[in-house]
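Researcher: Good morning. I'm working through a list of sequences from a screen, and I'd like to move beyond sequence-only analysis. For each chain I'm collecting a predicted structure so we can compare shapes side by side. This is the next one on the list. No need for commentary yet; just the structure.
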Amino acid sequence: MNEAVGLRAKVPMMAASLVLSFLLWAYVQIIQPANVRYLNIPIQKFNDDESLKGFVVGKLKTASIQITGPDDVLSSAMDDINKRGMVAAYVDLSDAHPGVDNYPLHLSLARHDLKYTVTLEDLTTQVEIQRRGTRTVPIDIDPAGQPADKNLAYDGATASPSVVEISGAADAVRQVKSVKVILDLSQISSSESVPETPEVVDDKDQPVDGVSISPQTVRIAVGMAPAPQSETVLVSPVINGQPAVGFTVKNISVMPNQVAVQGPPEVLSKMRTVPTKAIGINGLTASAVYQVPVELPMGAKLYSAKTVKVRVTIEPVGTSSSSSRPITVP
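Model: Good morning. Structure tokens for this chain:
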């Protein structure tokens, strides 16, 4: 008796579950039938030559199409459209005008005996049309990396032509800050001329879309020179004059006492020390610290400290130590 009551209680729930399952199946069949596929394809421009002289058409969206046919041909239909271009969508711009507006979409079939049917989901697409802008911009050369040959050093580069013309929608052209070439020095083995493709960037050094360059390729004449050698040499302070009567120079020290010098081998080979700019101590009665540059021969340059500190310790004659306080002299 209890089993019959339990069964009667479950029947409505089972019936409700069957109804819900059927409704779900029907919904799936209606929304996505087995013999239908959907695809987004690029939109091409049509009739834009005469009516849009002096204007630029913005980037077009994609068109959504519905492909209907037997299940056994749908997979090949997708390949026909994606890879073989059997179906194309285009927007008719014969009555186009500047600004943002909707324009009619159309389908074009490469063949009319296809085993499937293709229809557009949308009949129009939004298109933005702007006036064309042009500018002439010089080319900036941005060297990157180091020459693969360690015996060579980058010695400048020039572009030919030195300027290019950029063209595109007026808003995009206004965004352009510079046209630059990234010169990869690791690919340069000697002084030579190499072809490069310039890049258009904005004030944040990001590429600007929708802008064309003429010419698209320029030649960069790259200069390479023998890489300068380097040496670490001692600093020799140059002192002129004498302290005041009754005082003597107790000690002279330099900080740092050596510097790194770069230059051609024939210059570095003659350098044992580098002198400082002359320091005058006439009439000095107390110790002093001077911040002075070092003097280099022609062709040499520093790539470490540009100046050194020279401390001149002054003591009264006959005194073994001095209580005098150092004076810093610029």
